Amino acid sequence: MATSYDVAVIGLGGMGSAAARHLAARGRRVLGLERFGPAHDRGSSHGGSRIIRQAYFEHPDYVPLLLRSYELWEELCRDSGADLMTTTGGLMLGRPESRTVAGSRESAEKWGLPYEMLDAGDIRRRFPTFAPADDEVALYEARAGFVRPEATVDAHLRLAARDGADLRFGEPVLSWAPLPGGEGVRVVTGAGTYTAGHAVVCPGAWAPELLAGLGVPFTVERQVQYWFAPRGGTAPFRPGRHPVYVWEDAGGTQVYGFPAYEGEGDGVKTAFFRRGTAASPDSLDREVHPGEIADIAAHLAARVPDLPGRFLRGAACMYTTTPDEHFVIAAHPGHPQATVACGFSGHGFKFTPVVGEILADLATTGATRHPIGLFDPRRALTGGAAVCSPDRRDAHEVTP
Ligand SMILES: Cc1cc2nc3c(=O)[nH]c(=O)nc-3n(C[C@H](O)[C@H](O)[C@H](O)COP(=O)(O)OP(=O)(O)OC[C@H]3O[C@@H](n4cnc5c(N)ncnc54)[C@H](O)[C@@H]3O)c2cc1C
Questions:
Q1: How confident is the model at residue 266, as a pLDDT?
Q2: Is residue 314 in contact with ligand 1, taking CB distance under 6 Å?
Q3: I want to staple 231 with a disulfide (CB 3.0 to 4.6 A). Which of 293, 309, 314, 349 is the partner?
């Protein structure tokens, strides 16, 4: 039986759950469709922790969104009663001219964000778990920390449901398309056909299939998160002593990590920022291989002397990367009845609450006060994997 909604949200992961929450809070009749269960570990929003920071080396234009995101995280913690965010301070480490250090400093300066610059001696004295080389420095940002991705998705979903959203799990969307005449969309799943005034499409690593018509050359990458038990125990790695960090080496490779925190047992989590391999979400290799563990272990041993210690476990996750590593958030250029959010390029989670707000703005009013010019899918984007052939442009079909 066809049911009509104001907005159908396709994909209830990091971004879709936030969109559903913001739309339901504005009194819209929301349908949410998700192929897996709530807060699952098959996409891009699992693994217990995600770094949040404001002095953003990726581009200064992200900073106003981060400031709003921090406000919304606090609101979300209050409204849901969940413990979602821990401020630990953050070190952006590398040579002074590295993108990680210089880019963070540029953003902090441009927006007047508080920060400290530390030389190698300062870093060793204040944070003895780290062993920088003499020519390395760090930008220290007291407001950095981490959020809990599964608990955040769960909080957004619970609040959306409380406000009346109809959330359906285990129901993959097979296709979506504008209705003839242009008023609204039709969404087909294995269980039925729905109509809605508008679609918000947030499919994460399934964007190459569900948003082929955008013509953005996305690359889906497999990225592994690793947990190690430090030599000598976790006490020196607790929040307050061991901040979150991103550490860039002379070759531009970035490794990042977290303190040991409640719920993580006796381990600390680390990962390479961008050293993934091309992957497909339906055939992702979830096994973590000895060569990969040896690779990150060698990288850590030179920088965090109490690591790697003992390997505990690993978990594969996916990035959906655009050629310039900036997001895609916009009204669909071909279909004004749809809003899209995808291509978060491995750094999107810290924005989930503000992306939810932006998607609700775009779906209900066609505009947003937030600066999203950087995320226009029509910008010049070349490279990556070609996923769009001309005959698929308007199909939006998931091939079974
Ligand atoms: C290892 C790793 C570490 C990261 N670290 C950080 C970090 O420290 N800080 C940070 O800010 N970001 C980080 N990120 C990035 C961040 O987690 C992602 O950018 C963010 O989670 C993406 O959210 P999403 O909603 O686009 O994808 P997802 O959360 O995967 O949601 C997409 C959803 O769509 C559903 N879906 C897809 N197709 C269909 C369909 N046909 N029908 C129904 N449902 C469908 C999927 O099942 C999924 O639930 C990291 C990512 C990884 C993998």
A1: 78
A2: no
A3: 309
Residue 337: strand, helix, or coil: strand
Residue 149, token pair as written in the block: 């991705």
Please give the distance, rounded to the nearest whole angstrom, from the Cα atom of residue 329 to the centre of ligand 1. Answer: 14
pLDDT at 274: 87
Query: Which 3 state secondary structure label does DSSP give 365?
Result: helix
Burial (CB < 10 A; 0-12, 13-18, 19+), residue 141, is buried
- CA–CA separation, 189 and 261 (whole Å): 40
Predicted local distance difference test score (pLDDT) of residue 397: 33
Cβ-in-10-Å burial (0-12, 13-18, 19+) of 283 comes to exposed
Cα of 12 vs centre of ligand 1, distance in Å, is 9
Ligand 1 neighbourhood includes 34 CB (under 6 angstroms): yes
Distance, in Å, from the CA atom of 258 to the CA atom of 243, rounded to the nearest integer, reads 7
> Does residue 218's CB lie within 6 angstroms of at least one atom of ligand 1?
no
Nearest CA among 141, 157, 160 for reference residue 55 = 141
Which parts of the chain sit beneath pLDDT 70? Answer: 1-3, 383-400
- At 379 the pLDDT is 94
